[in-house]
Amino acid sequence: MRILVTGGAGFLGSHLCDRLIEQGHDVICLDNYFTGSKKNVEHLTGNPRFELVRHDITLPILLEVDRIYNLACPASPVHYQYNPVKTIKTSLLGSVNMLGLAKRVKARILQASTSEVYGDPTVHPQTEEYWGNVNPIGIRSCYDEGKRVAETLFMDYHRQNKVDIRIVRIFNTYGPRMHPNDGRVVSNFIVQALQNKDITVYGDGSQTRSFCFASDLVEAILRAMEQTDSIGPINIGNPGEFTILELAEKVLKLTGSKSKIVREPLPSDDPKQRKPDISKAKKILGWEPKVNLEEGLSQTIEYFKKLT
Ligand code: NAD
Ligand code: UDP
Q1: Which of 108, 118, 157, 231 has the greatest CB tally within 10 Å of its CB?
Q2: Distance between CA atoms of residues 5 and 110, nearest Å
Q3: Using a 6 Å cutoff on CB, does residue 236 contact ligand 1?
Q4: 261-264 and 199-202: which strand pairing?
């Protein structure tokens, strides 16, 4: 098949491009390089089945494709809050443009949604039926509400125009090719530990997250795209739940770093707990994560060691 990956030069997009090329597809990797980099896909650039297109999905584009994976959107709070208006435009206008393209060329389209649609959840663990607890006017809203409206657009294009959609809700995912200045917790802690700098825990570190390794995530979204039992939404993540303080301690242990843990203020609207219920993914995709946190952190640490 000919497959479009928007945000294909980003962290997850580049791993997805790798897998699609391995499977024998033709891949068009589209990116505006806001948080992604050509370096993430440079090993693919000589391949005749791989094409790189500089484009911003807030503008329309016409390409003949069979599948669209819509991953374009900055994912780190630091980056999505840098230009919040642009962030919401990417989810809103970008989804309209990509859904319009899917409708026109009759492509199946998958949206990379997020656990952020659950906001600061009052239901734990989060199931797909939960509608969420999201602040519509806070500093995270450009991302959270953008992703929520994107889900609405996907469902309405499906109901109104019969567009063949898939929605996956991705929980915190980490791994090689995260940008060293990405600002998300796993890359921050590893880079700080390797440089023997202070480990910056925001708040008291009791907030929890569930961390999924990139290879597990990519396997799940490939399966979500190709199955025909559910359009979603389907939660994708690793149900192992850790406090941010536990994560800091694991990174210190695995790196053997001399860094000290310091406290910094908790950003507003920072969700207190997050853990996916992945029963639906297990049933529909026959999938569950294979890589545990220690193993995934070790691989990610090795990647960052080579960069520094
Ligand atoms: P990333 O920032 O590494 O990748 C996003 C990519 O999109 C980058 O290459 C960036 O340059 C590109 N991009 C941003 N705006 C664009 C635009 N307007 N037009 C074209 N390209 C644009 O982040 P990631 O972690 O790889 O996330 C990929 C997708 O998965 C995002 O949609 C994100 O919201 C979603 N997601 C990721 C996680 C996670 O933990 N990694 C969790 C939930 C959802
Ligand atoms: N966090 C932290 N130190 C950092 C970066 C993040 O303590 O240097 C915390 C952050 O406040 C949040 C959690 O780690 O509670 C996950 O943050 P991240 O930005 O990775 O993702 P998200 O909040 O979107 O889940």
Answers
A1: 118
A2: 10
A3: no
A4: parallel
pLDDT at residue 253, rounded to an integer: 97
Residue 203 domain-assigned (yes or no): no
Chain segment 201-250, per-residue pLDDT in tens: 999 999 999 999 999 999 999 999 999 999 999 999 999 999 999 999 99
Q: Which ligand is nearest to the CA of 61?
A: 1
**Catalytic one among 69, 80, 143, 174?**
143
One-letter amino acid for residue 2 of the chain: R
CB 142 within 8 A of CB 80: yes
Q: Measured between alpha carbons, how far is 240 from 253 in angstroms, rounded to an integer?
A: 19
Alpha carbons 280 and 126: distance in angstroms, whole number: 12
How many Å apart are CA 201 and CA 170, to the nearest integer? 23
Number of structural domains (the chain) is: 1
CA 39 to each of CA 47, 121, 181: distance values in angstroms, whole numbers, following the listed order = 15, 36, 15
Q: Residue 149 belongs to what domain range?
A: 2-173+213-239+273-289
